[in-house]
Specification:
By secondary structure, the protein is of the alpha+beta class. The protein has helices at about 5-20, 110-115, 125-130, 170, 175-190, 225-235, 255-275, 295-310, 335-345, and strands spanning about 25, 35-40, 45-50, 55-60, 60-65, 75-80, 85-90, 95-110, 130-140, 165, 195-200, 245, 280-285, 315, 360-365, 370-375, 380, 385, 390-395, 400-410, 410-415, 420-425, 430, 435-440, 440-445, 455, 465-470, 480. The chain folds into three domains: about 20-100, Sandwich (Immunoglobulin-like), CATH 2.60.40; about 100-345, 3-Layer(aba) Sandwich (Rossmann fold), CATH 3.40.50.1110; about 360-480, no CATH class. The longest helix has 19 residues, at about 255-275.
Length: about 500
């Protein structure tokens, strides 16, 4: 090596010693190309770097900066952003491309929320039409953890952990309920929409709840869970969102009464930890399903109704007209997403749109009949319905139970008929009842009950019912009594 080369090498080494290379600033994996940021509220961007490293974040006319703490964690807060895009999000020298600003919603729960587009009614046609570049999809990596994670666990699924534009290729494996929900919001509001899927089939609500919550309520003591909260919800915090849509409950039917406490506690847990106030929490009542074969599914639906009535800024979607008594996964997810979007329009965006079916208000005993009054019922209608019903014939093959045949045999309800009402006296024995719409109320009676005490509607594992309001939205199953029910302590 020449003398000059040695001098140059020495100078480079000296510069490297005096001015060490800048540390890599690593944003949380929620922040990437094609992402959607929430409009109209403060946005927090966070990640990791070497302790003390300065971080500057820029987008639109917003700029913020901060430094990594001694644990290497940094957090930068930006002011409210305006909808639109695409924009560039700069984090020091890094440039995140094709970033949109609009409405961000989390979709969570179990299999009916996770249920993908490819497994729904008219899947081929609907997937082919799902070309909406301003709708962006993010699938949270599935992960059960003993303690809350700050970052998502690594995933071998290439569709997880990154933002994708809504195209036929990308939407096929994405949540159908979320897609139909997001599509309606996008088309109606003409703004970008970001959908974050954090769902896992067959999971109970306690798995989605922070561990210390169970000790706060006597009814929940001894219940252990939290692994999905730790692995799939905690890493989302404090990403700015507009609200949450939720479809779950089937896995809590065996503990239905407990759900009256657990579900509101979980909602409060999420809201407290997100620190965005009482953001809209919109959910789907579990669908009819005959194989439950007990009264606990009715108690679970009642717990969901109770939550909608008592927890602020919540709304519930009823889908008795789209359930399938032989299939716990009804294949028609379009109306579910659309009805959730109606709830969002009313609660999140303060639009004056009907979003709830008739809701039982009070009852009055008049001789041998009971008169029911409702709210959200400008008109009461006994609607003609054809309710899906999948029938399954089982047999044996090789010593194992197998499905021999699976076919549809819809339940037909004629307009004007009002099935699903039962009535009881003080003994609590319920009999099938006759129900009539009279002047905006419903009169219920039975020749078998001369001194009625209580009425129930749709109190069945798979209710075939048809009470709607003028907006075409169905009434939830309900009861007027306080008789003890299964799983009630």
């Amino acid at each position: 090596m020449s003398t000059l080369s040695k001098i140059v090498a020495w100078l480079f080494a000296l510069v490297g010693f005096v001015c060490p290379a800048r540390a890599e600033v690593r944003p949380h994996s929620l922040f990437g190309d094609n992402m959607v940021l929430q409009q109209g509220m403060k946005v927090i961007v966070w990640g990791t770097a070497d302790p003390g490293e300065r971080v500057t974040v820029k987008i639109q006319d917003q700029e913020g900066s901060g430094a990594a703490d001694k644990e290497g964690k940094w957090r930068v807060e930006l002011g409210a952003l305006k909808a639109g895009g695409p924009f560039e999000l700069r984090i020091n020298e890094q440039s995140l491309k094709n970033v949109l600003v609009g409405e961000v919603w989390v979709g969570s729960g179990q299999s009916n929320m996770e249920w993908s587009m490819k497994d729904t009614r008219d899947a081929k046609k609907n997937i082919a039409e799902a070309n909406y570049p301003e709708i962006r999809l993010f699938r949270t990596p599935k992960s059960m953890q003993a303690k809350p994670l700050a970052e998502f666990a690594s995933s071998k699924n290439p569709a997880e952990g990154k933002w994708l534009a809504c195209t036929p290729e990308n939407v096929a494996g994405f949540s159908a309920v979320q897609y139909y929900f997001g599509r309606k919001l996008h088309l109606d509001r003409k703004t970008p929409v970001g959908l974050i899927q954090a769902a896992w089939g067959g999971t109970a609500a306690e798995l989605w709840t922070r561990a210390d919550i169970f000790d706060m309520y006597p009814e929940l003591k001894g219940l252990k869970g939290s692994q999905l909260y730790n692995g799939m919800i905690a890493p989302l915090l404090p990403f700015a969102i507009k609200g949450v849509i939720w479809y779950q409950g089937e896995s809590n039917v065996s503990k239905a009464w407990q759900y009256r406490t657990l579900f509101p506690a979980m909602i409060k847990n999420w809201r407290d930890d997100w620190k965005q106030g009482d953001f809209p929490f919109l959910f789907v009542q579990i669908a009819p399903f005959k194989p439950y074969n007990n009264e606990r599914s009715q108690v679970l639906r009642e717990a969901q109704l109770y939550t909608a009535q008592t927890v602020p800024n919540c709304a519930m979607v009823v889908i008795t007209d789209y359930g399938d008594e032989g299939d716990i996964h009804p294949v028609d997810k379009d109306p579910v997403g659309v009805r959730l979007a109606l709830c969002a329009q009313a609660l999140a965006y303060k639009e004056k749109v009907p979003y709830s079916g008739p809701e039982f208000l009070r009852h009055k005993i008049e001789g041998s009949k009971i008169v029911l009054s409702f709210k959200n019922a400008d008109v009461l209608e006994a609607k003609a319905l054809e309710i899906p019903r999948t029938l399954v014939e089982f047999g044996e093959k090789g010593g194992k139970k197998v499905v021999l045949k699976r076919y549809q045999s819809p339940i037909q309800i004629k307009a004007g008929d009002l099935p699903g009402f039962t009535i009881a006296g003080k003994d609590g024995k319920f009999f099938e009842a006759q129900a009539k719409i009279i002047g905006g109320q419903i009169e219920v009676s039975s020749a078998q009950v001369s001194e009625p005490e209580a009425v129930r509607y749709g109190w069945s594992d798979s209710p075939a019912i048809n009470l709607f309001n003028g907006a075409g939205l169905p009434a939830s199953p309900f009861r007027t009594d306080a008789f003890k029910v299964p799983s009630q302590p």
